[in-house]
Amino acid sequence: MNFLRRVFPIAGLVMVVASLSGCNILIPDVAADSPARFVQETSPVFYQPPGVDPRRVRPIPDQPVPQTRELYKTQFHQTFGLPVANPVHAAMYGQLRDEDFTLPSIPVSRVQPQFLRQEVDYQTAERPGTVIVDTKTRFLYLVEGNGKAMRYGVGLGRDGYAWSGRGVIQWKQKWPRWTPPVEMVSRQPEVRPFAAENGGMNPGLQNPLGARAMYIFKDGQDTLYRIHGTPDWQSIGKATSSGCVRMLNQDVIDLYDRVPAKAEIVVM
């Protein structure tokens, strides 16, 4: 029995080897090292349509490289992958806490870009610190010198066209009270509660003078001409029914901080 137990495993192994003797798994494939076979197995397959001789196909001439390109332009004149709003504008016109009030952010995407605050080239004979109001283009410039100026968009009311010339910013006021003139009270009786005899309108987000007001004098006399903020941001760049020179509240605060005392102003 012990002899059979030793013989049977050896006999099984011999039978398995005999059954595999017809396969090549025990024989190395030396043909795989053949360069001709390697080229045949790895050569690319080209598309050759019937009736076309590849030797007669002319190559496409090199196209000139464009110097300026518009990438992925859409029908809305925007570019994929790029911000549609300037992040600097979002910072300049974002929500702002000032004194006891919180100014809401301004939707700058709905304001024409030329009326947003920006430094521009501006040639003038006026000295730095002078404020220039161009009523035709509805821009206000603060002259900086060296051919530069800070430009702001403004809205002009009826009173904004009533005076022109040279003057001085005699007085500046944060969060001013609004007192409508007698002529306005006579035209619009609904503002009578804010007339001078009633003390005017308290400062606030709905006050027509906004967050700041700068009062223009000429030869020591009040011209009744004002540069002021407005909660009505949609009026910037437009002609309005009332008021003088309106600015976005964030802009009028910026101008207020830049304009020196007794600054000269030119309205043209």
Automatic annotation (TrEMBL):
<comment type="pathway">
    <text>Cell wall biogenesis; peptidoglycan biosynthesis.</text>
</comment>
<dbReference type="GO" id="GO:0005576">
    <property type="term" value="C:extracellular region"/>
</dbReference>
<dbReference type="GO" id="GO:0008360">
    <property type="term" value="P:regulation of cell shape"/>
</dbReference>
<dbReference type="InterPro" id="IPR005490">
    <property type="entry name" value="LD_TPept_cat_dom"/>
</dbReference>
<dbReference type="Pfam" id="PF03734">
    <property type="entry name" value="YkuD"/>
</dbReference>
<dbReference type="GO" id="GO:0071555">
    <property type="term" value="P:cell wall organization"/>
</dbReference>
<comment type="similarity">
    <text>Belongs to the YkuD family.</text>
</comment>
<protein>
    <submittedName>
        <fullName>L,D-transpeptidase</fullName>
    </submittedName>
</protein>
<keyword id="KW-0808">Transferase</keyword>
<keyword id="KW-0133">Cell shape</keyword>
<dbReference type="InterPro" id="IPR038063">
    <property type="entry name" value="Transpep_catalytic_dom"/>
</dbReference>
<dbReference type="GO" id="GO:0018104">
    <property type="term" value="P:peptidoglycan-protein cross-linking"/>
</dbReference>
<dbReference type="GO" id="GO:0071972">
    <property type="term" value="F:peptidoglycan L,D-transpeptidase activity"/>
</dbReference>
<keyword id="KW-0328">Glycosyltransferase</keyword>
<keyword id="KW-0961">Cell wall biogenesis/degradation</keyword>
<dbReference type="GO" id="GO:0016757">
    <property type="term" value="F:glycosyltransferase activity"/>
</dbReference>
<feature type="active site" description="Proton donor/acceptor">
    <location>
        <position position="228"/>
    </location>
</feature>
<keyword id="KW-0378">Hydrolase</keyword>
<dbReference type="InterPro" id="IPR050979">
    <property type="entry name" value="LD-transpeptidase"/>
</dbReference>
<feature type="domain" description="L,D-TPase catalytic">
    <location>
        <begin position="129"/>
        <end position="268"/>
    </location>
</feature>
<feature type="active site" description="Nucleophile">
    <location>
        <position position="244"/>
    </location>
</feature>
<keyword id="KW-0573">Peptidoglycan synthesis</keyword>
